[in-house]
Specification:
Helices cover about 45% and strands about 15% of the residues. The protein is an alpha/beta fold. A seven-stranded mixed β-sheet has the order 2-8-7-6-5-3-4, with helices on both faces.
Length: about 400
Amino acid sequence: MKLSKRVAAIAPSMTLAVSAKASELRAQGEKVINFGVGEPDFDTPEHIKNACKEALDKGYTKYVAAGGLPALKDAVVRKFKRENGLDYKPSEIVISNGAKHSIYNAVFATIDEGDEVIIPAPYWLTYPETVACCGGVCRYVNTTKESGFKMSAEELEAAITPKTKMLIFNSPCNPTGAVYTKEEITAIADVCVKHDIIILADEIYEKLVYGGAKHFSCAEVSNEAKAHTIIINGVSKSYAMTGWRLGYLAAPENVAKACSSFQSHATSNVNTMTQYAAIAALDGDEKPVEDMVKEFERRHDIAIDILEGYKKELGLDYIRPDGAFYVMLVCDMFYGKSYKDTKIEGSLQLSDLLMTHEKIAITPGVCFGDDSCIRISYALSEGELREGLERIADFFRQVK
């Protein structure tokens, strides 16, 4: 059976493929350490799970409005006011099946065939696939290690053409962990307002910031910036609810209405019980979140301390992250050299060698738009973090 051109061109998610391979080897009895995982290794807080159970007990198992429960939209409105100082109406909020679904809805609703979308690289690997599936054209701004993988307002402006319709902006960033400052975001938002460009602001990692870094939303810059911004967020990362599949967007009313209409035909509503759980997450006790962030910061510091030692010993470089739970290891200084009898020619091959010989699952940087790096996650126990980093170091000690 022949596939459509748009589907045939879509690449599968490399991060999910890496995790699936790690799970397969573990099932075979191998001691695999999975640095490719993109989810917190914490359980969902009890009060959130209890809210779901209560919804089930009350029989809240029927269809609801496609764009979300009114009570959950109200909770999202309160969240934006309380945490970001932003005023939204419930009609500007759409509840979807995860932030990934929210991104697809937003791009589908605003991008026409041939519209250009600017994406800073390295980028989350789903962005280009979503844009391409919706008929858009990706234009990449390649950031540098020297800038901490941050795009400047000047670089953004230089990339704009008459066809530019949208900027996809992610801070804190997956895969780099970069967190843009208020000043950097203000300058970028001002460029977008000047050129009438939509800002798709993926803020799913907003609570996961460390070392005094602060999250700042593009929509906070000005009323004009807010009018140009579609915020993407959800409960997956901050509340350890990845499997619950609930994200949301905030956008100008006409965009939100279009997203809701499209979703009504594509998926209908997010499962009803999850929506009641999300209300408990957004309105409930934040201490579990605070405790999780403290633990991630502790692991972040452990990883950086260990990597500093390897940088001195091996020349294995890294880019210090300020948010999310990822570190980009810079490995291109080893390209052209050999591990045993195999010449290393890129991040994909490096990923395969680490899996085969050290039972380490990492995500190659090539799928994020930067072949010079590999991405590791520190969303795993301290013991696995230390052992896994030592296995990586052992591998590079054998590269000649």
